[in-house]
Design a protein that fits this description.
Elements: H1 21-35, H2 40-57, H3 61-76, H4 81-93, H5 97-110, H6 115-128, H7 131-144, H8 149-161, H9 165-177, H10 184-201, H11 204-217, H12 222-234, H13 238-251, H14 255-267, H15 271-286, H16 296-305, H17 310-321, H18 327-339, H19 343-356, H20 361-376, H21 379-384
Helix pairs in contact: 1-2, 2-3, 2-4, 3-4, 4-5, 4-6, 5-6, 6-7, 6-8, 7-8, 8-9, 9-10, 10-11, 10-12, 11-12, 12-13, 13-14, 14-15, 15-16, 16-17, 16-18, 17-18, 18-19, 18-20, 19-20
């Protein structure tokens, strides 16, 4: 599962149940703005509600609404602290990780005991590959308020990255235990993450249970559809995976989601459909390749695994690794280097990823393949490579 940090940046505040928690928050904030249109905090609340709705639906149009609303907040009270926190959240959501780190660092200096700012420091540092700094920030969250849900969620993800799946599941369960029943999207997200962790640990039955529970809590939740599809692939129920991923792409038509659908179609033997999806994916991905919020990882794997174009893969990988060094970017870069025949350089990159402790099956497969090719190379050629 592509684990972008936008998932981890939600403020876990209790909401009254309506159609969805975010919709209820939008309604309440809109009513407050109408009553007092010169009050910046009401615009901040509305902007955050739109941001929550973006996560619920994966509809990026809500990010634009949030930014527009935040502009109104700053017009009333320039650079107000809560507004800048939401600006950081939006930067993370758009994968502007370096900018988010800069903003969060400034906010942390202004208010060094703000819990959510430490959360943003975790998120940005994780995505940039600054894992020691991320761990330090996460520890501050738990020291400032032991057992807080936002801190537990981030600690769980860091444990996963460092290979401690049992510990990750433990804190994710603690986070769920402290999340109110009315917070349906937050709970569905947590169940989805637990399904992901169980699948990594090899317990397909538990993964299926968590994924289906997520969908029962929040029907047609796009993250849960994707995770249940991964369960179906593990069960070799490829046609079912295609159905789930097609539904997900219809709801969230992002390039990375189309790539997952194309791969499932190929596994299901739907060769013509897969070819069409891959072609459409390439065009859609290339249109966003220079954006911060892109599908460059998937584009690299497409060029290596499906298109056989190592040069293009390496071009995209070098551009992506220039801005971030997280384990998944290092993995994609290593795979592109291997495809180009530079196994020594590929091994150097994949070893950096493995040193963190990550147990993602794709990363481990790539590492094994690269090591095998290195071992098969003649000693003299290996030294020159």
């Amino acid at each position: 599962m592509k684990t972008t940090i936008a998932f981890l940046t939600i403020l876990f505040a209790a909401q009254s149940y309506a159609a969805t928690p975010a919709e209820m928050a939008i309604q309440q904030a809109t009513a407050n703005v109408a009553k007092q249109p010169d009050h910046a905090p009401y615009y901040n609340s509305l902007a955050m509600a739109y941001a929550r709705r973006a996560r619920e639906t994966s509809d990026v149009a809500y990010y634009a609404k949030a930014e527009e609303t935040l502009t109104k907040s700053f017009a009333i009270t320039p650079d107000n602290f809560e507004g800048l926190k939401i600006k950081t959240w939006l930067q993370l959501g758009r994968h502007e990780f370096a900018n988010a780190l800069e903003t969060a660092t400034k906010l942390n200096k202004i208010s060094p005991d703000d819990l959510s700012v430490y959360g943003y420091l975790v998120d940005a540092n994780v995505e940039l590959g600054n894992y020691d700094a991320a761990v330090t920030a996460a520890q501050w969250m738990l020291d400032l308020r032991p057992g807080n849900t936002a801190g537990l969620v981030r600690a769980g993800y860091l444990r996963e990255l460092h290979g401690n799946l049992t510990g990750a599941l433990e804190v994710m369960q603690m986070a769920d235990d402290s999340t109110g029943l009315s917070q349906t999207e937050d709970r569905a997200w947590l169940f989805t993450q637990m399904a992901h962790l169980e699948l990594l640990a090899g317990d397909v039955a538990k993964a299926e249970n968590y994924a289906t529970t997520a969908l029962s809590v929040f029907p047609d939740y796009h993250y849960a559809l994707a995770q249940l599809a991964q369960v179906r692939i593990a069960q070799t129920r490829y046609a079912d995976a295609v159905t789930l991923l097609a539904k997900r792409y219809a709801a969230a038509p992002h390039a990375e989601n189309l790539y997952a659908l194309a791969e499932a179609q190929a596994l299901a033997g739907q060769k013509e459909e897969a070819a069409v999806s891959f072609q459409k994916f390439e065009g859609q991905s290339l249109a966003e390749t220079n954006l911060t919020d892109n599908s460059n990882h998937e584009l690299i794997f497409y060029y290596v695994d499906h298109a056989g174009n190592a040069d293009r893969a390496l071009e995209v990988a070098r551009r992506e690794v220039a801005r971030r060094h997280d384990v998944f970017t290092l993995d994609a870069y290593a795979w592109a280097l291997a495809a180009s025949g530079d196994y020594k350089a590929a091994d150097a990159q994949i070893q950096k990823a493995l040193a963190v402790g990550v147990r993602d099956p794709k990363v481990l497969f790539h590492a094994g393949s690269i090591a095998m090719h290195l071992a098969e190379m003649p000693t003299a050629l290996r030294a020159r490579n």
